Amino acid sequence: MAFNSLPNEILAQICSCLCFHCRNPGMFPNSNTKESRMDKITLARLCRASKMLCSFAQPVLFHYYATGNLARSVRTDFQEYNRSWDVEYWNFEDDKLPAFLRSLITRPDLALCVKSLQLQGFGDQDLCSPELMRLLFNAGNALNFKPPAGWRWKGWAEEPEDWSDYEPPTNRTYIVSYENFHPDFLDFHDWLRALAIALTPRTEMLMYICEGLSELDSFKETKTVLPALKTLALRGANDEDYFLSSIHPLLTVAPNLETLYALDCNGVKNSPSRYSLVAKGDMWIENLAVNKVHKLVLDEIPPAVFEKLIERFVQLEDLEYYIYSWANYPNIMQAISPTKGRLRRLCFGYLPPPAPGHYESRLPDNDYATITSLQEFTQLEELVIDQALLYRKSDGPKGTILVTLLPSIRRIHLTYVYKSMYEDLMSLAHEAPRSFPNLRSLKIGLSSPIPPNRIAEIEKMKAVESTFVSMGVHVSWAEDLKGPFLYTAIPGGAPGLTVTHVPASSGVWE
């Protein structure tokens, strides 16, 4: 049967099946995997087959734009005292961003079809004709976007004296070994990324890979409004980071943001001098407009900053927080106390490096506060927590998990379990029908590898499963490896990579 004779509903369904965005709601699309690239190519070919097929395929083709050069490989080796594992290496590759922008500008109807963007700041040099440069300039000017340094109608200025009124950027490391590589290229590409965001007002999900975020200052004077943007994922590039306060200009034009992934927002690599000034917290969160955010995922920041940051999220219901060092272990109960009447999900854990030795050797010796009770968090339904945050190394069975939990709990995920908690788990199983009537799922992630002296007790602990099942609680087991790749905390954040996942992201469980 020819395509032209198929019912419209079938044609629309075929196109949706070729769209990563349509098939995977809530996950960021990519152009890294072979399947994603082939689906895009197929949709593009359908657009060229006939006008009728184009009318169905082209809007779906523009559902998402994903930069073509996200991570290609990851170095997983470990060096002590240097968080150097899982550093990405990116290929130089043309991401076709200028061509994508040309389509958005000349076909505003297609710009309204874009639902998801994944934008990266580093790639091959953008080559633009004078006509395209003028088109980009006019579109940016209409939105009050200031042109980047080095702008000229025929391309980029060759000499510093031709840089118009702008100072040459000094906060980048430029690659000078490539012939005709202009030092303003990176700023220009950042400007293109900001323009892509501004031109797609119906974008619902945005992943932004950044180095510094100064380009977002363009949004301070812009006419842009992004009412549809619900999910924003920020992360560093090339082992770089940024300051969380730098995203304020973008937040102000996204008034309905609900989910924020703020990874690599420590800022110490971006500017050590500024880091020392803001480490107390006030400047870190200055003017941060997050009053509608329900879910926050971030990694280690100074404890004082973490406490003040949580105070700004007045509607927070879902929190994930990861630390790399026990020196920056916050008083988690004090920090999240402002959320006790509304927090529904809490995920808190230590991400151990892939260092030699067993997981237990990375833990401190009894000099940190464990989580002793969540009784005040009356809405809490899901808890994802390291065993080490409930029990110190010297702690024996003491009923901790029973006094920690509350009747509203539905799902428990214990991560990096390195020693037996058989007695406490058996007590929990027997108490579940009476004290925890809503409990439906228990997942136990065993730290791997298990030390030889712990194998027998861990095997005995597995016997709790039958007791839980008899009480109507589903039990599942997982293997938690050291050196998890942070960006797996973002749905679709590490496509096509063979890396260790953050335990909370390792799969859907009931």
Report on this model:
By secondary structure, the chain is of the alpha/beta class. Among the domains are: 232-350, no CATH class; 358-481. Helix content is 28%, strand content 15%. The chain has helices spanning 8-17, 20-23, 34-49, 51-61, 97-106, 108-111, 130-142, 185-198, 248-252, 272-278, 303-312, 332-336, 400-404, 422-435, 455-461, 464-470, and strands at residues 64-66, 73-75, 87-89, 116-120, 151-152, 155-156, 205-210, 231-236, 259-262, 295-299, 318-323, 345-350, 382-386, 411-417, 441-448, 474-481. The strands form three sheets. The protein has a twelve-stranded parallel beta sheet with strand order 1-4-7-8-9-10-11-12-13-14-15-16. Strands 2-3 form a two-stranded antiparallel sheet. A two-stranded antiparallel ribbon has the order 5-6. α12 (332-336) links the parallel β11 (318-323) and β12. The relative contact order is 0.08. InterPro entries: LRR_dom_sf (IPR032675). This is F-box domain-containing protein. It comes from Pseudogymnoascus verrucosus.
